[in-house]
């Protein structure tokens, strides 16, 4: 089993000018990699941690086809508590961390705005999404539950998965996979890290 799901693998399922939603964009390293793979893409990058969002804007400012948003994607619109991570700055979550991170990271609760993917798409007149990349530290299913209309046009979903409980009330992989399969997405590839977490690539059975 591969430990990496490459952008080149995903490329075969997408048009040359895909509309991409990246949730959990961090400081934009993968955002830049994607715009190099798909230079004709429109990339919508979400990062709710204020310090990381500032760096994301700095990283991507020269690309007119990268659009940045400081929302946390969820199943409701409003505000929520986000546990901002320190020590490891890539594991902030809308779910409270449990003891899994007790050595490597500490967390500070902050308030961030939330929005659903469907509401955001409506506000910005986004008619379809070709590729969703969800790296939300246990909140991936919540974001998908707020995207029921958008999912009807989505071709590919790359999502982080949890095989062990790293956050309170976060859905584990088997539940996330079951939900996606019930919404007509088929598992194409998994990439696991230490059998604790990883990524999984799902393809819509309606678009190929």
Task: Report on this structure.
The chain is of the alpha/beta class and about 210 residues long. It has one domain: Rossmann fold (3-Layer(aba) Sandwich). Helices cover about 25% and strands about 30% of the residues. The chain contains six helices and ten strands; from the N terminus they run H-E-H-E-H-E-E-E-E-H-E-H-E-H-E-E. The chain has helices at about 5-10, 30-35, 50-60, 115-125, 140-145, 175-180; strands at about 20-25, 40-45, 65-70, 70-75, 80-85, 105-115, 130-135, 155-160, 185-195, 195-205. The strands form two sheets. The protein has a seven-stranded mixed β-sheet with strand order 3-2-1-7-8-10-9, with helices on both faces. The protein has a three-stranded mixed β-sheet with strand order 4-6-5. Helix 5 (about 140-145) links the parallel strand 7 (about 130-135) and strand 8 (about 155-160). The chain is globular. The two termini are about 25 Å apart. The model has no long low-confidence stretch (mean pLDDT about 95).
């Amino acid at each position: 089993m591969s430990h990496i799901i490459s952008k080149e693998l995903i490329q075969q399922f997408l048009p040359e000018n895909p509309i991409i939603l990246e949730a959990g964009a961090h400081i934009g390293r993968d955002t830049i990699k994607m715009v190099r793979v798909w230079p004709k893409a429109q990339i919508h990058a979400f990062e709710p941690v204020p310090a990381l969002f500032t760096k994301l804007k700095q990283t991507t400012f020269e690309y007119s086809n990268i659009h940045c948003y400081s929302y946390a994607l969820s199943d409701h619109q409003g505000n929520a508590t986000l546990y901002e991570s320190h020590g490891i700055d890539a594991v902030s979550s809308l779910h409270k961390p449990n003891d899994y991170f007790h050595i490597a990271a500490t967390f500070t609760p902050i308030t961030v705005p939330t929005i659903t993917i469907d509401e955001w798409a409506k506000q910005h007149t986004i008619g379809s999404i070709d590729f969703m990349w969800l790296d939300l530290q246990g909140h991936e299913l919540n974001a998908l539950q707020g995207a029921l209309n958008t999912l009807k046009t989505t071709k590919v979903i790359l999502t982080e998965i949890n095989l062990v409980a790293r956050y309170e009330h976060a859905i584990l992989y088997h539940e996330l996979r079951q939900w996606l399969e019930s919404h007509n997405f088929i598992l194409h590839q998994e990439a696991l890290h230490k059998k604790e977490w990883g990524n999984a690539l799902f393809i819509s059975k309606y678009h190929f």
